[in-house]
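In full, the data:

***
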Amino acid sequence: MPFSVSIRRDCSLEDLAQIHRSGGSVMKTPHIGNMYPNNLAVGALGIPLNCYDRTIGRMDKNFHPHRVIRGGASEVIALDGIDRLTTHAVVDRPSRLAPEWFPIGTRVADGHMAALRAALPMAECIAYTDWLRERADRITAVLEVITDAFPSLWERLVHPDGRVVDYRVRNWSVVQAIGVYGITSDAPSGLIVPNVVNILLDGVLECVSRGVTEVYHCSGPDMVRYIGELEDRLHALYDTVRSRLGWGLPETLRFHLVPVADMRFAVPERRRAALDELVASWRDFQTVKRRQAEHMREVSDDERQAAITACVAERDHTMARVRDAIVACPEIFYRIEAANCTSQYDLLAERTTVYVPPWAAAAPMHEIDAAMGFFRRADPRARLAITRDVA
């Protein structure tokens, strides 16, 4: 498999940050807009954020780039941007929630990026268009060889006013004549690099620039679901680039996709105690569960019923602590599609930082996923309960 995709739930954010510090390739590509706690945590822990800006407001249910989210409220600041590419969206409504970042007539993308950098001053953040421009020569070379082999890849074009339309090309000459937005010209229009090619570029350019044979990419809620549908095309595209460009690319590029969407354990600093208690309640419950399982394997048949009764009582007591902690720390249950999460604008308004518990930074993603699943089932507001499997 030339472009070998593997889903890695055995990595922690701490592991990934260390790989990056050691010169390896690690990246997350959230969209430009309102960063929810998952992305704030990733950036705060030292993982680079390459913020994708080729989105359309009404279609982006995760980052809502035409809005500002703060304090549980949401406002539209770019009504015209609802149906325009985020790179072209301009502030056309006064902002009540973050006026200092969004003066009328300024670019929405600039405001979101500036606010993100101010909220996470130690984080590595770049807009995707800027990332492309810095690598324009190599990207153009990649685009030419894959267009010659697969011209049907091109699907979209952006007009100068930001409207996006379907568009197909026949060959590289047509691509050159029209231009690739953000790469082959400075015009505010042109063909938009297809998503599968963006993924290819993440891998190829990191391999070439860092001299590595594997890259780590943090996935939000969507990419991990659709990556399987793109694998065959990624194999074909990578083989084409490797055979035609002679950049010393490895026979197999290993693309490690780490699902991090459930790493929701991040809050403003003032909420540290509530989140610490929530994490402690989870770890305490797991400790009790393991100890009880070991104990039940050792009891005699005559003692079993009494042991079960004692275990249930202890489990109920421990679960009561969990439910109290959930109610006291509702922030982790945000719904990004409802635009009700903590964002960079909350951090800025409070003049604070984002807090990530040491356990959440160090735990592998499969443990993070298990914890979030546990809390969702235990949430008393959802009227669900944990099955008491003590035997």
